[in-house]
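Minutes, project check-in
Item: structure for the 107-residue chain
Input as provided by the requester:
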Amino acid sequence: MKPGSVVTVNFPGVTGLKRRPAIVISSATYHIERPDIILAAVTTKVDRATARTDYALQDWLVAGLRKPSAVRIFIGTRPAIELAQIGELTERDWFKVQKRLRLALEF
């Protein structure tokens, strides 16, 4: 897995675990020493993704998603063995997601 990979995983949310797509946001350096992957949540409720740190994906179909989707900077970790890769963000979408991460984490 590499940053910008689109995966499916049982992701913790407000209502408990739910199988959903997520975006890998952890780096290769992180993966060398850790058995888990850092993820950001993906939602199909694009109309509700209105926070400054949310991003409506432009190339969602190319990324392997079945419906229009948005990335929410709702971060969690899961063991790498629980993930199934379904695609990868395009460069323009990954750039915009990174911009939202920097905004959310102020780095």
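Outcome recorded: The chain has one domain: 5-105.
No further action items on this chain.
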